[in-house]
Amino acid sequence: MEPNIAATEHTRGRYNRIAPLYDAMEGVVETLWYRRWRTRLWRDVVGPHVLELGVGTGKNIPFYPPGVQITAIDLSENMLKRARRKLAERPRENVTLQIADAQALTFADASFDTVLATFVFCSVPDPVQGLREALRVTRPGGQLLLLEHMLARPEPLARIMTRLDPPFHWLSGVHIARRTVDNVEAAGWSIDSVTPLSPGSIFRHIVAHRVAPAEGERDARERSDKGLAARNLH
What we know:
The chain is of the alpha/beta class. The chain has a single domain (5-232), classed as Rossmann fold (3-Layer(aba) Sandwich). 45% of the residues lie in helices and 21% in strands. It has seven helices and seven strands, in the order ααββαββαβααββα. The protein has a seven-stranded mixed β-sheet, sandwiched between helices. The longest helix is centred in the N-terminal third of the chain and has 21 residues, at 5-25. The N and C termini lie far apart (43 Å). The model is unreliable at 228-234 (pLDDT under 50).
């Protein structure tokens, strides 16, 4: 599926514009919460080949583990410039930064052992397409690791976030009412765990994997056996 060019350029433009202010805008939450969550997320990375979607200004660079080859992409040229500066402060031969769109990755199928993103699928114009692309470039059995903010679980707060989502997105390029767990499943990933990180479950840590052929065959057999058992009860 081809990305929506207008929506993609809107998002790119918003992030190019806020790039000089981005780290300052998130300074407090980064110190209080995000940094701790990033540490936990990167602890679970499996190599040797890792793809980071939406590297932004490079906030994850200090957490990159040794001994793995990391490819990190971003849609915004101005955000990526700042990531390159951070990488220059701690040079790593095993890290490649490049401009790319998560909705239309140029990597070959099954190229990576882990695909990872932090606070990215709130702004990908077509999140399910981006997650499908992530699935395509992940090897069978490989994993997806996400930190995301999304629609709150309490209904009153969810209604408020839904009303505010269109103007917030127009101004910033970010959606605040995404159903990211549903999107991960819709893209074809098998979810292993979803861990709430904040009140209302606005922030969540998602772990999923690409089903390996043998696992898919086993699941299909189990579904078939359950269906047969259910029919035999009637």
